[in-house]
Amino acid sequence: MTQPRLFSGMQPSADSLHAGNYIGALLQWRDLQATHEAIFCVVDLHAITVAQDPKLLREQTRRTAAQYIAAGIDPTLSTLFVQSHVPAHTELAWILNTITGFGEASRMTQFKDKSAKQGSDFTSVGLFTYPILMAADILLYGTELVPVGDDQKQHVELTRDLAARFNSRFGDTFVIPKPFILAESARIYDLQNPSSKMSKSATTDAGIIWMLDEPSKTAKKIKSAVTDDDREVRFDRELKPGVSNLLTIMSAFTGTPMPELVASFEGKGYGDLKKTVADVVVAEFDPVRARTLELLDDPAELDRILATNADRAEALARPILEKVYDRIGL
Ligand code: ADP
Ligand code: NA
């Protein structure tokens, strides 16, 4: 019985992933791998679209892969690999470059945001063509579903357009993928600034729950989370973004539906809420952290896992790429 194929990835752009990555991506991936033929990539080639420190990138790539595994991505069930280990990604990206319109690429809003954030600093053409590499990542595997956040939806649309264009010009080759949009309920916000999403690239650290932080640090951050002036524990994203964010995190970790969770805090205050959330988060991340450190302590074993998985990815990608070369006359 074949399962629908699914592809997703994250950039190795920090030492640790955070609660947003965990709830919005890893937890969902972990569930999806049971019902899909899942391919999970650490997209290091995407990470070099902004300036990198080579030593740090290598380290963060390994740490990210270890965190995927520690969070429950099973590298014998799913294909879990590092993007640059499979050269087919860059090979297909070049070919897709040649069928992408300049205007079409220029309409990608994430490039505008990211290049604006770079300020007057250097902006690479790689950052501009990033969505085309992402299209290659997806199309190389005959992917049907791409779990992404809202901000990546436009890139999946581009991927669909490129696949359809290639198919109509050169003959049926690519599967047209569909975005699998993350539920709004899985979106986690910055503890200090609950109107912006928790992000690896946030400018301050205080609002981010890192998966690999010491438990005491995590508890302290949660206890210092911004709330509001009334004292009622209630879910209301508009009026009570801080409290709602804490409730969302807790609901994701415990599986308790929101109304039930809110009811359990009746007559209790924000101090109780924060303490309970801190305990839940620490209990969830403690084993993930321990497992990550264990994996990083045995580099040979992690290398072996990543090499085996890169071979599996290569074996899936190569026949599709060969077909592409053939179709376009190379
Ligand atoms: P970051 O903003 O931390 O760099 P990425 O953009 O690399 O995160 O996203 C990696 C994955 O994690 C994506 O699947 C994205 O949807 C998910 N993700 C990132 N931040 C959050 C968040 N705050 N809440 C929920 N999911 C998130
Ligand atoms: Na599976």
From TrEMBL:
Gene3D superfamilies, sorted: HUPs (3.40.50.620), Tyrosyl-Transfer RNA Synthetase (1.10.240.10)
Domain of life, per UniProt, equals: Bacteria
The UniProt record gives the binding positions of ATP as Q11, P12, S13, G20, N21, G149, D150, D151, I188, K197, M198, S199, K200, S201
GO biological-process terms attached to the record: tryptophanyl-tRNA aminoacylation
Q: Which GO terms describe its molecular function?
A: ATP binding; tryptophan-tRNA ligase activity
Where L-tryptophan is bound, by residue? Answer: D137
Q: What is its EC number?
A: 6.1.1.2
Catalysed reaction(s)?
A: tRNA(Trp) + L-tryptophan + ATP = L-tryptophyl-tRNA(Trp) + AMP + diphosphate + H(+)
Presence of keyword Cytoplasm:
yes
CDD domains assigned: TrpRS_core (cd00806)
Q: Name one GO cellular component term.
A: cytosol
Motif 'KMSKS' region, residue numbers: 197-201
**InterPro entries, per the entry:** aa-tRNA-synth_I_CS, aa-tRNA-synth_Ic, Rossmann-like_a/b/a_fold, Trp-tRNA-ligase, Trp-tRNA-ligase_bac-type, Trp-tRNA_synthetase
Q: Does the keyword Cell membrane apply?
A: no
Keyword terms of this UniProt record = Aminoacyl-tRNA synthetase, ATP-binding, Cytoplasm, Ligase, Nucleotide-binding, Protein biosynthesis
Compartments (UniProt record): Cytoplasm
Q: Which HAMAP family match?
A: Trp_tRNA_synth_B
Family assignment? Belongs to the class-I aminoacyl-tRNA synthetase family.
PANTHER family, per database record: TRYPTOPHAN--TRNA LIGASE, MITOCHONDRIAL
State the protein's purpose. Catalyzes the attachment of tryptophan to tRNA(Trp).
The name under which this protein is listed is: Tryptophan--tRNA ligase
Tell me the organism.
Glaciihabitans tibetensis
Whichever gene encodes this chain, its name is: trpS
